[in-house]
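step=encode ok
step=design start
structure_in=
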């Protein structure tokens, strides 16, 4: 019988439908390429495997950048949020970080609906067990059923599924997530092709029946009264919000947990993978911070129409009975009923220095990695990588230069640059401190930085472009008005008295008054002249204009520093450059440079262990 292949040849195949895979698939198909998304389970497309929340410190900025480029994470987060908070409002605007609590099921269903209605995108449920590689180029994938599907490029976004191993106490079983099978075959094949792999670990806390908790013993954590959201599109925000709660561990909880340490896979050697330093398990916290009397526990609802509670801060792989005993000693949890225990999961990753800045593997052309396969942790980091990998997989097909965002352009650029030049031996998480130009990379200006790029790529819709243009014009007009509007002492007296601001001696432009740290535009809007001038502008445009004005000195300084760094980026290192012949370089430097093969002196400078004298030597040898 003649065998019929139900699949045509694709331009791009995406393997995995987590946050990285969803963004990659949406991007590749929107740009116009014939795209296939292959997932092991269509019921969990866009699943929030751990915390049902998006954003946070630096992560929120990444979501806004994804949105500004034309990705979907911001829109879906806004549509599914049950609570919103802007973190770090008491600090400078570079630190303001949006965070939403989301309805887990709604978030995933919105992603699936979006993908199912994306032109040029097909979805297929099965496990990919092998890549089709001919010479040094990927040519498609092979499924567990033996079906071969041809494509011109492939993006791997396997998350925690590659040889995933779940740990609960002394129990171990294969899986990529609770109640889901692990993926096998791909790691072994990639190793045979010359790539290197490692093992990492992450974890998740137990889930609790919210009806069994006593919330009167906890602190209430409400959302912000005004919801900013992530997306620059006009997404309707929820009219009501669900509150979260905060409680704390205590000595009794710690002692109960310690009783199970001898059965902990973390301490008895069962777990080989390295876990996230900045999101440790509860047993790791009480072991490493033995002097702390208590640890914060965030009690977070999982959605609008469920009683399920996520116990943020209690990630654990201890035995089930130890988890349960310790949980019931937390204030408010005395009668807690557990839906399922927490667990740790080990999985394969591929050190990202094996990639170039486009996220394409150096050994196999047309093959891209995105998300936890690169050693990162977090939905936001995964989504940002997936978007860039999906974009660059399409540009590879058209023989175009890849999209490489610079460190002064976006947190996504910082993330990818760190990964491919510094690598990571522990789960990489983004922080504002990783970005040297963070006053330029604020969440409020992500559209001004990146939407023009999204437009060039064909990702930004007409509505998005119009929103961008309108905001740009409003910001410019506000900045102009700051210089044009003059206020005399009598007009500002009452506002100055309320804010304990020094009395004004003479008429002064509004912009000069705004530079006073204790005064905000909201204070000055009490003055009728100011209110009439600015009430026609959107709140977001006015806020961006105020930030641009108040911090213009810092912004100008960072732009100057960024330009100086950019000069090194313009000094290209020839692809054929032989570092081994440069005897004045240390052996370590020669080895690192030969392995990573940076394309510019700027990239070489950012490699861990490469010092300024190495850069000076390279400048001489490339004739500069």
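sequence_out=
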């Amino acid at each position: 019988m003649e065998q019929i292949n139900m699949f045509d040849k694709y331009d791009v195949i995406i393997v995995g439908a987590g946050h990285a895979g969803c963004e990659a698939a949406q991007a590749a198909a929107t740009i116009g390429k014939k795209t296939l998304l292959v997932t092991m389970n269509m019921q969990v497309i866009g699943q929030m495997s751990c915390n049902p929340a998006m954003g946070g410190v630096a992560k929120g900025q990444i979501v806004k950048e994804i949105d500004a480029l034309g990705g979907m994470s911001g829109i879906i987060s806004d549509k599914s949020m049950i609570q919103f908070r802007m973190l770090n409002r008491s600090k400078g605007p570079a630190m303001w970080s949006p965070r939403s609590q989301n309805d887990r099921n709604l978030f995933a269903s919105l992603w699936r609906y979006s993908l199912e209605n994306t032109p040029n995108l097909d979805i297929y449920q099965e496990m990919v067990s092998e890549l089709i590689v001919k010479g040094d180029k990927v040519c498609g994938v092979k499924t567990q059923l033996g079906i071969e599907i041809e494509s011109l490029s492939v993006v791997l976004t396997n998350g925690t599924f590659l040889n995933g191993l779940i740990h609960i106490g002394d129990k171990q079983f294969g899986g990529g997530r609770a109640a889901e099978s692990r993926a096998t075959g791909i790691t072994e094949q990639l190793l045979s092709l010359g790539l290197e792999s490692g093992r990492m670990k992450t974890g998740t806390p137990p889930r609790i029946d919210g009806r069994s908790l006593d919330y009167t013993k906890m602190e209430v954590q409400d959302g912000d009264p005004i919801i900013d959201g992530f997306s620059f599109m006009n997404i309707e925000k929820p009219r009501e919000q669900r509150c979260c709660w905060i409680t704390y561990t205590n000595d009794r909880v710690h002692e109960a947990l310690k009783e199970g340490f001898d059965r902990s896979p973390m301490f008895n050697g069962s777990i080989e993978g390295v876990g996230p330093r900045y999101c440790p398990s509860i047993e790791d916290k009480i072991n490493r911070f033995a002097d702390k009397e208590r640890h914060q526990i965030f009690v977070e609802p999982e959605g609008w129409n469920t009683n399920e509670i996520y116990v943020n801060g209690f990630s654990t792989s201890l035995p089930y009975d130890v988890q349960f005993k310790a949980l019931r000693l937390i204030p408010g949890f005395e009668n807690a009923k557990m839906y399922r225990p927490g667990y740790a999961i080990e999985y394969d990753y591929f050190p990202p220095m094996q990639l170039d800045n486009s996220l394409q593997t150096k050994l196999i052309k047309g093959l891209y990695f995105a998300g936890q396969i690169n050693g990162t942790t977090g939905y936001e980091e995964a989504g940002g990588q997936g978007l860039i990998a999906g974009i660059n997989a399409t540009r590879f097909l058209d023989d175009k230069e890849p999209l490489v965002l610079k460190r002064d352009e976006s947190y996504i650029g910082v993330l990818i640059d760190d990964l491919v030049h510094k690598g990571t031996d522990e789960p990489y998480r983004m922080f504002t401190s990783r970005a040297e130009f963070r006053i330029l990379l604020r969440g409020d200006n992500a559209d001004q930085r990146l939407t023009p790029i999204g437009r060039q790529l064909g990702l930004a819709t007409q509505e998005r472009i119009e929103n961008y243009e309108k905001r740009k014009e409003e910001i410019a007009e506000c900045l102009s008005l700051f210089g044009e509007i003059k206020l005399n002492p009598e007009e500002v007296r009452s506002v100055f008295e309320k804010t304990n601001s020094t009395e004004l001696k003479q008429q002064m432009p509004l912009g000069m008054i705004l530079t006073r740290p204790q005064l905000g535009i909201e204070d000055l809007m009490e003055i009728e002249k100011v209110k009439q001038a600015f009430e026609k502008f959107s709140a977001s445009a006015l806020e961006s204009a105020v930030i641009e004005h108040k911090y213009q000195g810092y912004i100008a300084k960072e732009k100057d520093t960024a330009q100086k760094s950019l000069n090194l980026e313009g000094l290209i290192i020839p692809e054929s450059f032989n570092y081994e012949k440069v005897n004045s370089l240390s052996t370590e430097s020669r080895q690192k440079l030969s392995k990573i093969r940076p394309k510019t002196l700027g990239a070489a400078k950012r490699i861990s262990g490469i010092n300024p004298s190495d850069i000076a030597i390279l400048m001489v040898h490339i004739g500069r």
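step=design ok
step=annotate ok -> The chain has three domains: 10-201+347-457, 462-555, 570-621.
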